[in-house]
Design brief:
Blueprint lengths: L1 H25 L8 E4 L14 E2 L5 E5 L2 E5 L4 E4 L13 E6 L5 E5 L2 E6 L4 E4 L10 E6 L5 E5 L2 E5 L7 E3 L9 E6 L5 E5 L3 E6 L4 E5 L7 E6 L5 E5 L4 E4 L10 E4 L14 E6 L5 E5 L3 E4 L8 E4 L13 E6 L5 E5 L3 E6 L5 E4 L2 H7 L4 E8 L2 E6 L3 E6 L4 E4 L15 E6 L6 E5 L4 E5 L4 E5 L12 E6 L5 E5 L2 E5 L5 E3 H4 L12 E6 L4 E6 L4 E5 L4 E5 L10 E6 L5 E5 L4 E5 L4 E4 L13 E4 L5 E4 L3 E7 L5 E8 L9 E8 L4 E6 L2 E6 L12 E8 L2 E2 L5 H7 L9 E4 L6 E7 L9 E7 L6 E4 L4 E4 L5 E10 L10 E7 L7 H75 L4 H30 L7 E4 H12 L9 E7 L4 E4 L1 H18 L5 E10 L2 E8 L6 H5 L9 H6 ...
Parallel strand pairs: 59-65, 67-69, 73-74, 73-75, 75-76, 76-77
Antiparallel strand pairs: 1-28, 2-3, 3-4, 4-5, 6-7, 7-8, 8-9, 10-11, 11-12, 12-13, 14-15, 15-16, 16-17, 18-19, 19-20, 20-21, 22-23, 23-24, 24-25, 26-27, 27-28, 29-56, 30-31, 31-32, 32-33, 34-35, 35-36, 36-37, 38-39, 39-40, 40-41, 42-43, 43-44, 44-45, 46-47, 47-48, 48-49, 50-51, 51-52, 52-53, ...
GO molecular function: DNA-binding transcription factor activity; phosphorelay sensor kinase activity; sequence-specific DNA binding
Keywords: DNA-binding, Membrane, Phosphoprotein, Signal, Transcription, Transcription regulation, Transmembrane, Transmembrane helix
EC number: 2.7.13.3
Length: 1367
């Protein structure tokens, strides 16, 4: 028996030893190297976070003790805070779940809440639907039912119902529910701490209770991907149910903490359970995080406890674990916030080369060359180069390398390549030329300015070996070639003496294409292509304007396409068809950026780097970029940048780029074209930098009824046109490396690419309109997602720019236009009326003027015969020839009668009272008598008047009185416009059997059509008549009316054959006239209606003027100017008794008479043809030769204005017709006496004061000149009349007449008078002057003659004059 116990003890000891050894082998086996990345607590409402939840949109929801937070990878949106924007929770939140409608249900300390994600509104589930409880868990079943558990038990809300029902045990209420879970079979598992574990069969409506001592403390329930049920207990560890659906005693495996054992569950209080994509069970406990790697191994736990280092677990109580849709693991902690756990290996490698940085204080890589065996030659700024081991992260400086230790120091190596021909590694140094390294023989040789005299620069920027083994060297000062035979050449030698403008330019890169063209990138000379076959070259520039000359890098890809990266103008490719470089402008992220590297990977994809961005793409035959991937480089440091021409393609396909902070590598085979499937969401919409969520519900309704991520359209008022759209790609692995491209259609011309730091788009001052915002995103792999999110943004126009405003404007415009139209029409009507009024006024004024002119003319016409009659009566009183004077008086009385009859006839025509009375008679005889009776009226004009009739005798009906007036007026008009020796003819003929044609023609100036058109107008004044004749202006108008009254017509025309012609067509048959117009009692009409006056010629016998009566001591000659010959004759006869008289019939003729000289006074009528009296007077007064002659005007105008006009023209007298001869004579004598008195006054002056003698300005100037002329020659004895005339610049006659008229002195007497007057002045000034000296001083050569002349003028001798002055 003892032996049996002994063997049993040995067996137990062996098992214990075996267990210890097995546990010892697990130590260090399960290491995940997890990195905990916390979300910044600054964006969380609190660090006390309960159960994490990810909804169907991809958002992570964080229920906290201070509201609900939504996380999108960048920022947090808080709900239920006391900010007035929504219903506040005001309690602790525990769990969040999403129902099938997309709304969130929140289990909280004070019940259940519902968040409508579409609108962002929070709804509290009231007591009428759910009794008050502390809800600790909530979830949505697959059938849409909502389950809630808490301190009051278990509740369910069916999908189609609004009210929660209590689910109780058969015997008691289920209380203290802490966790609810639905398994794959539809059973509901309930964990109630200190109440046990329960399974509820929904189909049978039956509870199964498991009251095991361990399960009694169930706290959380979980089902893994193998449908295994796991239960986390309170202080009893982790339990895996082995018989979960048993109706009896539950069997399970229990995992708990074993003191001192690292690989067991670290803490028995379990808060959360989750499973990752590697099927590992994650357990959140009171003390940290435990991960079970093997469920069959009790000692397979890997525990993470709180630490202080970056990447360690920040807090102990892991309240929940969430596996997101991207298989990223998240944990929340009571008081520790939220952490993201980095579990995947990155597809993009980062080697910050901390070893190098510690040695050299820099890890800026200028060049990379793979030497094999995980070793790289790298150029380091400031320290030359190193040999770096990528596997061990160690390095050796070239000066420590045994093969390079003899080489001098260089600050950097910018280019490293291997020559295929020799196998040497070529190092292009910054200051030591080229080092050529033979690895096999461990030898290094140098090529620089010391070893090669042609080498002008030791600063090497680039190296390239061409297809023939020639090594092309790009330096700071041009290009050199080391050929395959190791001969060194300058490029100018290589190009056979070609003129190369870029010989001394800085060379950044050199490439060779398949056609053996060498492409060279220069600093300021652009791109140079050298053709090695014909030794020619061509230069290219890049940029949209082909003006960029600074090129960093070149690439000739596997398809032969040439690429060029400029310093600041982006990427360009060579277009062979256009023979030019085309700049790529489709991507703003590289536009106007410096391209630092261009390289092609093993799959033919082009990779480029800018300052801090990597871009890969392919290009099709149409030069369209495809398969574009962006790779954002995390900005750990603000100074990060990719170094130029620092890249390397490794044999396994990995790309390495040197940067200012180590190496960035990209595994080409891991960067596929698989599109991203992560949700792309709109996270916020801000108006004037104010989030819609921060607004009250009423304010939000103005913009959208839904949340920005669920709405299709945002409507903004016109003043809200500054807005920001925030967005996110819900990829939580590396959200900082996501990139986005967006475009606002209707505003942006092209897509805008931004990185994760600018996951928003801002637009300011957009005009009203509808815009469509398009958004795409790419994850950290650089693969663009298939999903494009769109959001319509409609900016309403300002109220004054809306359609209804335009309608109002249109209506207003129409109304305004209507009123404007009415106003304009009214204005036009008023203007028209005003215009009509003005025209009427003007017409009235014209008519008044014409009437005034008419009355003036008729007055003149009446006054002239009256003046003749009065003058004849004066002549009769003086004993004139009675027979002649009676004849003159009879003729002028008859003329007065005809004028008065014409006015009366004209008045009758105007009033319509004029009638005709035709009778039968010999018309031709009547017309002949009318013509013959007019012959004496032609007077002295020597005009020939003839009459013709065909046939000689024409009988018919006519009104003799009217026909007489017609013929008289036509003949009177013809006489006015016919020149002297002209012809006037009256022709009568029958146009047909009943129509008489009368033509009155005259020679002279032909009438224009304008004149003809106005002939028959009343008061018409043509240009010729206005300036050449005087008349009433009603004669022809009366003729037309009389012809029309006679049922005839009249017309006027003018031509070279007939001259001016007035043609009258009169009916002579009885039938034409009405009964009241016929007078058959008169048998014949033969006598003309007007008596013929006797014309008295002033040259006829018995009418010669008598000898001038000596009534005045001075002989004077008068000029009488009047267009009426009879009046002119009468005045001549009356005045010839006292003066010599000359006559003229108009102003022109008067000027001719004045030119003959000897005229002392002019008497002129005002109204005359050719030149009227006013114009004649003005001419006389403005003419030097005549300005001294007095002028008296005669006129029928009695108005004061007419008299003022006459005096203003310079007239010396003004007499109105009919004038009294005695008055005329008195005026004449007065003017002559005034003229004579001026001469006497002049002669009496001792001191000449011309301005006091009332001369005209011209006369005053003339006299002063004459006096000055004599005074200038005062002592000149030889100064005589001839010299005086010459000095005055006038003819002797003019000078004599002028002086005679003004001073009454001849020129000789005027000179003598001036000399004597000067002598008086000398004696007044010098009282003791000798007489002889005085005589010589004033131009006398004989003192006795001087004394004689002096005594004759002054009545005393010079001596007596001087003595008188002394007294």
């Amino acid at each position: 028996m003892k032996k049996k116990y002994f063997y049993l003890s040995l067996l137990l000891l062996f098992l214990c030893i075996l267990s210890v050894d097995s546990h010892a082998t697990n130590r260090g086996k399960y290491t995940s190297n997890l990195k905990f990345i916390p979300i910044s607590s600054s964006i969380l409402p609190t660090n006390e976070v309960r159960i994490l939840y990810q909804d169907s949109d991809g958002y992570i929801w964080l229920p906290t003790y201070n509201g609900l937070a939504r996380y999108d990878g960048y920022s947090v949106v808080n709900y239920g805070l006391n900010d007035g924007t929504n219903l506040p929770f005001n309690c602790y939140l525990n769990v969040v779940t999403e129902d099938q409608d997309g709304d969130l249900w929140i289990a909280a300390e004070k019940g259940v809440f519902k968040l409508h994600k579409l609108t962002g509104e929070i709804e509290r589930i009231g007591s009428e639907k759910l009794e008050p409880l502390n809800a600790t868990d909530i979830f949505c079943a697959r059938n849409g039912d909502i389950w809630v558990g808490g301190d009051r038990g278990l509740f369910r809300k069916r999908k189609a119902e609004d009210v929660f029902e209590r689910i109780d045990l058969s015997s008691r209420r289920l209380g203290g529910v802490s966790s609810i879970m639905e398994d794959t079979q539809g059973n509901i598992w309930i964990a109630a701490c200190e109440s046990g574990l329960y399974r509820y069969d929904v189909g049978r409506n039956k509870f199964y209770t498991y009251l095991d001592p361990v399960l009694y403390f169930s706290n959380v329930v979980f089902q893994d991907d193998k449908q295994q049920i796991w239960v986390g207990t309170w202080d009893r560890g982790l339990v895996k149910l082995k018989t979960p659906y048993t109706t009896g005693r539950m069997q399970y495996d229990r995992f708990h903490r074993v003191e001192g054992e690292e690989n067991t569950l670290y803490d028995n209080i379990v808060y959360a359970i989750e499973q990752d994509e590697l099927h590992r069970i994650w357990v959140g406990t009171r003390s940290g995080l435990s991960i079970m790697h093997d469920e069959n191994d009790f000692y397979s736990f890997e525990n993470y406890l709180p630490g202080s280092e970056i990447g360690e677990l920040p807090y102990n109580e892991v309240s929940s674990i969430q596996r997101t849709h991207d298989n990223q693991m998240w944990i929340s902690m009571f008081g520790g916030g939220v952490c993201k756990i980095q579990t995947e290996n990155k597809k993009f490698g980062i080697d910050r080369m901390e070893t190098v940085r510690r040695l050299y204080n820099t890890s800026s890589i200028r060049s990379i060359f793979y030497a094999g065996n995980d070793e790289y030659w790298m150029g380091i700024i400031g320290f030359g180069m190193i040999l770096y081991n990528d596997r061990t992260h160690t390095c050796v400086n070239y000066q420590q390398h045994p093969d390079f230790k003899e080489l001098p120091y260089t600050s950097a190596v910018d280019a490293i390549i291997r020559r295929k021909k020799t196998g040497e590694i070529c190092f292009g140094t910054y200051s030591r030329g080229i080092w050529l390294y033979d690895e096999k023989n461990h030898k290094v040789r140098s090529l620089n300015s010391l070893t090669e005299k042609k080498f002008e620069s030791d600063c090497i920027h680039t190296l390239m070996e061409d297809s023939e083994g020639n090594l092309w060297i790009g330096t700071r000062q041009g290009v050199y070639i080391l050929d395959a035979d190791e001969q060194f050449h300058k490029l100018s030698e290589w190009m056979s003496g070609a003129e190369l403008e870029f010989l001394h330019s800085r060379i950044f890169d050199i490439k060779e294409d398949s056609e053996r063209n060498i492409w060279i990138a220069t600093n300021y000379e652009g791109i140079v292509r050298i053709n090695l076959q014909d030794k020619t070259y061509k230069r290219y520039a890049v940029g949209q304007k082909c003006d960029v000359q600074n090129i960093f890098c070149l690439l000739v890809d596997s398809r032969g396409q040439i690429w060029a990266g400029s310093m600041w103008n982006g990427l360009s490719y060579y277009d062979r068809r256009q023979d030019m470089f085309v700049t790529i402008t489709s991507f703003s992220t590289i536009e106007n950026k410096g391209i630092t590297n261009i390289v092609e990977d093993s799959r033919g994809k082009i990779w480029i780097t800018t300052n801090n961005t990597v871009l890969s793409f392919t290009m099709n035959d149409a030069h369209v970029l495809e398969n574009i991937n962006y790779y954002a480089v995390a900005n750990e440091m603000e100074t990060f940048s990719f170094n130029p021409t620092s890249c390397c393609l490794l044999p396994e396909g990995r790309l390495m780029f040197g940067s200012s902070h180590g190496i960035r590598s990209f595994m080409v085979d891991r960067t596929g074209y698989k599109p991203s499937s992560f949700p792309l969401v709109f996270t916020d919409f801000k108006v004037h930098n104010r989030s819609l969520r921060s607004m009250t519900p009423e304010e939000r309704q103005r913009f959208s009824e839904k949340d920005v991520n669920y709405t299709d359209e945002i409507i903004l008022e016109y003043q809200d046109n500054n807005f920001t759209i925030e967005f996110s790609l819900l990829n939580y692995v590396n959200p900082q490396e996501n990139m986005y491209t967006y475009r606002l259609e209707g505003y942006d011309d092209k897509e805008i690419v931004v990185d994760a730091q600018r996951h928003f788009a801002t637009y300011n001052n957009l005009p009203a309109g509808t815009y469509l915002f398009r958004l795409k995103g790419t994850n950290e792999d650089g693969v663009w997602g298939n999903t494009e999110r769109t959001l319509k943004v409609r900016i309403l126009p300002a109220p004054w720019l809306t359609w209804w405003a335009y309608c109002l404007y249109a209506i207003a415009i129409v109304v305004i236009l209507y009123f404007v139209f009415r106003f304009l029409r009214y204005k036009m009507r008023m203007q028209h009326e005003i215009q009509i009024g003005k025209l009427e006024k003007q017409k009235i004024q014209e008519i008044n003027h014409l009437k005034l002119q008419f009355f003036t003319n008729i007055t003149h016409e009446l006054m002239t015969p009256l003046s003749i009659i009065l003058a004849s009566l004066e002549n009769l009183k003086s004993g004139g020839d009675k027979r002649t004077l009676y004849t003159v008086m009879t003729a002028n009385a008859t003329r007065l009668m005809r004028l008065i009859q014409q006015v009366l006839e004209f008045r009758k025509v105007e009033s319509g009272n004029l009638k005709i009375c035709v009778s039968y008679g010999d018309i031709s005889s009547f017309l002949r008598s009318c013509a013959e009776a007019f012959i004496p009226l032609l007077g002295k004009r020597r005009q020939l008047l003839s009459f013709e009739s065909a046939p000689d005798i024409i009988f018919g009906f006519f009104d003799a009185d009217k026909l007489d007036k017609i013929v008289y007026n036509l003949l009177s008009n013809a006489a006015k416009y016919t020149p002297e020796d002209g012809q006037i003819c009256v022709r009568a003929a029958l146009a047909d059997e009943y129509t008489l044609q009368i033509d009155v023609t005259n020679t002279g100036e032909l009438m224009t059509q304008k004149t003809i058109d106005g002939l028959f107008k009343r008061f018409y004044e043509g240009d010729y008549r206005r300036h050449n004749t005087i008349g009433t202006g009603i004669g022809l108008a009366l003729v037309k009316d009389l012809v029309a009254l006679h049922h005839g017509t009249i017309e006027a025309f003018s031509n070279e054959q007939m001259g001016n012609c007035f043609r009258i067509m009169l009916p002579v048959n009885k039938e034409t006239y009405r009964q009241g117009e016929l007078d058959e009692t008169v048998t014949a009409q033969r006598q003309t209606a007007f008596p013929v006056p006797i014309y008295i010629n002033e040259t006829e016998e018995g009418n010669e003027p008598d000898e001038k009566t000596e009534l005045h001591p001075v002989d004077y000659t008068l000029l009488i100017v009047d267009d009426n010959e009879e009046l002119c004759m009468l005045f001549s006869n009356l005045l010839s008794n006292y003066f010599r008289v000359k006559t003229a019939i108009n102003g022109r003729q008067a000027l001719e008479v004045l030119q003959e000289g000897g005229i002392d006074l002019v008497v002129s009528d005002i109204m005359m043809p050719e030149m009227d009296g006013i114009e004649l007077c003005r001419y006389i007064k403005n003419k030097f030769e005549y300005c001294h002659i007095p002028v008296i005007l005669l006129t029928a105008k009695r108005a004061e204005e007419s008299q003022i006009e006459g005096y203003n023209s310079g007239a010396d007298g003004y007499i109105s017709k009919p004038c009294n001869f005695s008055l005329l004579y008195a005026q004449i004598m007065n003017c002559l006496k005034r003229q004579e008195r001026k001469g006497a006054d002049f002669r009496k002056q001792v001191v000449f004061e011309v301005d006091k003698l009332e001369y005209t300005s011209l006369d005053e100037t003339f006299l002063q000149r004459a006096i000055d002329c004599v005074n200038a020659h005062l002592n000149d004895v030889e100064f005589d009349q001839a010299e005086f005339v010459s000095e005055m610049g006038a003819s002797r006659t003019v000078l004599t007449e002028k002086l005679k008229s003004l001073t009454g002195l001849t020129p000789s007497a005027f000179v003598l008078n001036v000399r004597l007057t000067a002598a008086c002045k000398l004696m007044d000034g010098q009282s003791k002057i000798r007489i002889a000296d005085l005589a010589f001083a004033v131009g006398f050569n004989d003192p006795k003659y001087f004394s004689t002349c002096f005594k004759k003028k002054y009545g005393m001798t010079p001596k007596e004059y001087m003595e008188q002055g002394k007294a």
